[in-house]
Amino acid sequence: MQKRTLTGMAALGAAAALALTGCSGSGAEGGSDSGGENGTITLGYLPGWTDGLSTAYLLEDQLGKMGYTVEMEELTDAGVLYAGLAGGDFDIYPSAWPEVTHASYMKEFGDQIEDLGGYYDGAVLTLAVPEYVDIDSIEDLAGQADRFGGEIIGIEPGAGLTAQTQDVAMPEYGLDGDYELVTSSTATMLATLQDKIDNEEDVVVTLWRPFWANDAFPLKDLEDPKGAMGEPETLHFLGKQGVAEEYPEVADYIADIKLDDAAYGALEGMVTGDEYQNDPEGAVDAWLEEYGDAYPGLLAS
Hints:
Distance between the termini: 22 Å
Helix content: 25-40%
Oligomer: single chain
Order of helices and strands: HEHEHEHEEHEHEHEEHHHH
Number of strands: 9
Shape: globular
């Protein structure tokens, strides 16, 4: 897996900033020479959430090779994304957490959304600290707020991880009186984490698996004996209502995508790492060379 530096995280932050200003993707075509004769498919994603970013670029490549024009639509937060998908503003969300993390959005919008299948099993939400911190469980954070400046460093306010941490885990472990969950963006959380580690200071952050930061930083997940961060779940492709009928070939293809830890980790690593910074198509090409047999039907050439 590709390692990140602050250069890579700065690029991630810039992408997130573009999304927050309402800038959408440029509508770049997929990698097919056939000119999109089968129609146009729009993928909605959050640039700071690198699971969806990675799978969006994989789908851009694959659907382009199938003869579709693929447009990439950057969105601002999870609520906007689910509302847009339910409203048919775009066609596919390429990495949803509908079983636990995004369950509230599915409760609100699920009857207007099609599940196109799961592609990765065992995704989890976590609280994590650097390896040098002598705390191993979320329950051990109680009474230790001064060490952490009374803060748990989080990501976007609308993220399911934010709600799970603030509404469930912190009250369950009695942390809500002494700690504040600081929300901003994934890029800001990572920059704060980098700074704290550089200075070997105590910090606790909200994280998830799979996510490249778990390998890029010397981190450990805090044990969760009460299960307050939620059960493991499967990552899914979701579509607007009627997308499978409109694009049956695409729906069938997506339903067959299954990635194991190695293939997923390499994809995310290459798309978000420094080696292919600002070249996601090149990152996908490199991934295809190494993982061309990752799942049946993968178009590797």
